[in-house]
Every structure is written in C-alpha cells, then in structure tokens.
Amino acid sequence: MDLLTEGLGTGGPLILSGLRAGGGSGGQGSGLGLVTGGLGFGGSLLVRALSLGGVTPDQASSYTLSGPDSAAVGVPSAPFRVTPVGGAYTGTITPHATTVAGTFTPTSLIWAGTSDAKTFIFTPSGAATGTISTTASRALGTDPTAVAFTASVPVVGHPRKFVFRRHRTAR
User: What letter does residue 39 receive in the DSSP assignment?
Assistant: First the structure.
C-alpha cells in the first residue's frame, strides 16, 4: 500500500491513523510506502499505529554463547547455552569445534520467531585443546567469542596406597 500526499500546501497537520499493510502469501508484508512531497512550510505528518504485516518490530540483533571449558573424552559435556539478544529470532545457529574432534547434539539449533535460550552438548572423541564457536544463518551481527575448551583422557580408578608392615614372629 502506498500513500501519496502531495500539494497539501501550508497549514495544519496531516494525521494518518491505523495504517496496516496486509500480509501477502507466506506471511510476507506487501510493504507500505509513504511519500510526503510538498507538505509545504509549517505542515507536519503524524503517523499513528503503523503496522507492517510479516514484520516483527523487536528482532534479535546479536546472540550469546556460554558453556563449559572442558569434558573428558567420550563423555558428553555440560550444556552450552545460546541466547538471542534484543528480541525474537528466526534462523539457525550451528556449533563448530576448532582443533578438538567430537560430535554435537543437536547438530544445529533452530528458532522460529522466539528468543528462548537453547542448548547443545559436545562429546569430544580425542584429547585436545581448542575452541567451541557458533555461526548464525540469518546473521545476528558478529558471532560471539568462542569458548576455550579442553578434552582430556578420563582418569579410570584411583591409585591405591599399599602399606607393607613386617610382622614379628615369636622365636
């Protein structure tokens, strides 16, 4: 929908109230264009309750990544947490490991217009030190700083301390 206001001359304000661009197919807005040429000296334009179909006003602009700094080889880590910041997000965030081999569960996190925190775990398959990072598909600004991560060989059992004592025998 386009609204064209030309040649209103000088004088009072033009008030537009309750404009809404309808949702096209698939929830996409048809768009709303305002052209305000020629309002003249002293005129003003006031637009109230402008709503565009398919557009959410509070969209996430970044996201955070936090999580553990270590896990034992073959043992799932504590959860890593990914949270959109600034509003709702629609898209996919995928975790990656650098110089540490292993698997992620799930392999990607999907949002559909929400801002809830989601988690994933990493199960290292070999001992190494590296980082766990993420990338967003529908970009959310700069991806957050990677989490330093160490995968170590698990310690199996505990060393036992033996004390040997001599027994004196009577002669």
Answer: -
The residue type found at 141 is G
pLDDT per residue as tens digits for the range 57-113? 589 999 999 999 999 999 999 999 999 999 999 999 999 999 999 999 999 999 999
- What's 37's DSSP letter? T
Say how far apart CA 44 and CA 135 lie, in whole Å: 45
| Residues 25 and 56: beta-carbon distance below 8 Å | no
Q: How far apart are CA 151 and CA 131, in angstroms?
A: 10
Q: Supply the DSSP symbol for 73.
A: T
Coil vs helix vs strand at 27: helix
Of 118, 109, 127, nearest to 71 (Cα)? 127
Domains annotated on the chain, with CATH: 2-52 (no CATH), 62-152 (2.60.40.3450)
DSSP 6-22: ----SSS-EEEES-EEP
State how beta strands 70-72 and 147-152 pair: parallel
Considering just the CA atoms, what is the radius of gyration of the chain in Å?
A: 30
